[in-house]
Amino acid sequence: xxxxxxxxxxxxxxxxxxxxxxxxxxxxxxxxxxxxxxxxxxxxxxxxxxxxxxxxxxxxxxxxxxxxxxxxxxxxxxxxxxxxxxxxxxxxxxxxxxxxxxxxxxxxxxxxxxxxxxxxxxxxxxxxxxxxxxxxxxxxxxxxxxxxxxxxxxxxxxxxxxxxxxxxxxxxxxxxxxxxxxxxxxxxxxxxxxxxxxxxxxxxxxx
Length: 207
Ligand SMILES: CC(C)(COP(=O)(O)OP(=O)(O)OC[C@H]1O[C@@H](n2cnc3c(N)ncnc32)[C@H](O)[C@@H]1OP(=O)(O)O)[C@@H](O)C(=O)NCCC(=O)NCCS
Fold this sequence. Notes:
By secondary structure, the chain is an alpha+beta fold. The protein has one domain (9-196): 3-Layer(aba) Sandwich (Aminopeptidase). The chain is built from six helices and eight strands. It has helices spanning 34-43, 46-53, 62-69, 121-135, 150-158, 189-201; strands at residues 14-17, 23-28, 77-85, 88-100, 105-112, 140-146, 162-165, 172-178. It has an eight-stranded mixed beta sheet, with helices on both faces. A hairpin with a 4-residue loop joins β4 (88-100) and β5. The protein is globular and about 55 Å long. It binds coenzyme A. Coenzyme A binds next to α2, β5, α4, β6 and α5.
């Protein structure tokens, strides 16, 4: 899988749209987001947090908060989707993903703040993750969810994922999608940058 240039993370930011056309900025998390990220998770409903972490937590435990903030460490990446609310950049959704090079897959989990749900944000974010996955060379992307999480199951179904049993946990279901993005609709900066770096690595024979 192609490597990201971790020293310049801002270049991998994308602007998406909610169903109503509001702009969403999707970018890698930064150290300045620490308090805002914790505030985001504390503000989620108990149910949303349970569905996101498969257990009851009221906020991100210290170790996990640290992990969320380390972009690229152990090949794990956190992106946040932000919107301007009353003049402040506010986190309205987050996703964490991990490319697995040996299986050419990308594993992910995500959440959308309760106040912002049902506006097409997760749908747009999934599409963006699909493009990021393709840029990293993944051929499939997958996530796990509780069997009882009908919302995520419905979202995954609408987004073209198929369902399989989780290999080790009967309470979970795995949703998986083959990545087939057409270059004609390149929807993320990661793809453009990966294409440029491939070009630089192998200049044409006539050059
Ligand atoms: C699952 C989740 C990410 C969906 O986010 P969202 O931004 O509201 O999703 P969208 O607006 O893109 O909705 C897409 C589809 O998902 C389904 N959906 C979303 N919210 C739903 C709800 N409350 N009830 C039933 N279906 C729902 C619908 O099929 C919807 O399509 P529709 O609006 O055309 O009917 C969000 O509910 C969430 O963060 N839940 C808590 C965390 C979680 O469950 N994470 C998944 C585990 S990794």
